[in-house]
Specification:
The complex is a heterodimer of chains A (about 250) and B (about 90). With about 250 residues, chain A is mostly helical. Chain A contains 9 helices and no strands. By secondary structure, chain B is of the alpha+beta class. Chain B has a domain of about 55 residues: Phenylacetic acid degradation B (Ubiquitin-like (UB roll), Roll), CATH 3.10.20.520. Chain B has a 3-stranded antiparallel sheet, with helices on one face. In chain B, a hairpin with a 7-residue loop joins β1 and β2. Chain B is flat. Classes of the chains: A mainly alpha (about 250), B alpha+beta (about 90).
């Protein structure tokens, strides 16, 4: 098992959870406010399991909280997609959908991981992620195949977030190592599954898949967009100001 | 969202025998209503089965309650209370 690999998974969940938490109290309708924050909580739970494991593996006595609150942006290994701003409901749903498709297939494959603890985390998480995928897919269809306004907003979100999707299924050096060790799936095998599911849903949503396939990358190795700094400032400043502070 | 119909939500708990009314919500269609009900009304493991019914399809008695239900009040012969149960019959 590899420390950075666990951080890749855990940081994805943590940062996306933090982004979704920004919707709390600001959802367009009560039920969707609750749905969004439920998803945020599910992801936070996954982050906790993964970061706890990472802390133990690192062997420097760090807890999940130490890893969440005291690392700097360049030490986070989350994909660039999850730090993109909420912007509006369309962006939030599209970002969620792209991530959920990956998360679903990735966790499904991790059920077979040689690392038993990771397989157990995957089994528990998959139940939640199956629902996330259902939720975001249906919203993509409702909004894509909705009114002219919703369709336009969805297409804009889709066009702008597309370049962050490639990184999800592009193996980093660590992904390759883990795949060879039988701990993680070969991301190149996940990619066609991701493509097929995304194509199917976009078609049903009458949305056009962007043709430009140049992809951004860097998140997995700690090179982030300007957004992560602000997210961490908000998330970490309390613990950094009063270290060890508890409710 | 102004056009979204109102739905009444009924949940049956794991140990329960019948669905109980727990509240209502707005949703665009039945599928969304069920998911919203799952998100809003089963956060604390309240149930294993959800029914959603468009509020427009629920018809309730509105007439003067007294007169509508009164005739049943003085027909004691409708109640099963005039015979002795043998001891061997434990649950009735």
């Amino acid at each position: 098992m590899n420390f950075q690999y666990l951080l890749q998974l855990g940081d994805n969940a943590l940062i996306l959870s933090q982004r979704l938490g920004e919707w709390c109290g600001h959802g367009p309708v009560l039920e969707q406010d609750i749905a969004m924050t439920n998803i945020a909580l599910d992801l936070l739970g996954q982050a906790r399991m993964l970061l706890t494991y990472a802390g133990e593996l690192e062997g420097q006595g760090k807890s999940e909280d130490d890893l969440a609150y005291f690392r700097d942006a360049h030490q986070f290994h989350s994909a660039l997609l999850v730090e993109q701003p909420n912007t509006d409901w369309a962006f939030t749903i599209v970002r969620q959908f792209f991530f959920d498709v990956f998360n679903f297939y990735n966790y499904s494959a991790l059920l077979q991981s040689r690392d038993e603890r990771l397989a157990a985390i995957a089994e528990k998480s998959l139940k939640e992620v199956t629902y996330h995928l259902r939720y975001s897919s249906e919203w993509v269809v409702r909004l894509g195949d909705g009114t002219e306004t919703s369709h336009q907003k969805m297409q804009t979100a889709l066009d702008e977030l597309w370049m962050f999707t490639g990184e999800l299924t592009t193996p980093s050096e660590v992904d390759r190592l883990m795949a060879e060790a039988g701990i993680a799936p070969d991301l190149l095998k996940i990619k066609p599954l991701w493509d097929a599911k995304v194509s199917a849903v976009l078609e049903e949503a009458t949305l056009k898949k962007p043709e430009n396939d140049w992809m951004q990358s860097g998140g997995k190795t700690g090179r982030h967009t300007e957004h992560l700094g602000y997210i961490l400032a908000e998330m970490q400043h309390l613990q950094r100001t009063y270290p060890g502070n508890e409710w | 969202m102004k056009d979204w119909p109102l739905w009444e939500v009924f949940i049956r708990s794991k140990q329960g025998l019948s669905h109980k009314h727990v509240g209502s919500l707005h949703a665009a269609d039945a599928q969304m209503a069920i998911e919203n009900a799952r998100d809003v009304y089963t956060r604390r493991n309240e149930g294993v089965s959800i029914w959603v019914v468009a509020s427009a399809h629920i018809h309730a008695s509105t007439e003067d309650t007294e007169a509508f239900f009164d005739p049943a009040n003085d027909k004691v012969y409708r109640h099963p209370t005039f015979y002795d149960l043998p001891d061997a019959v434990k649950h009735m």
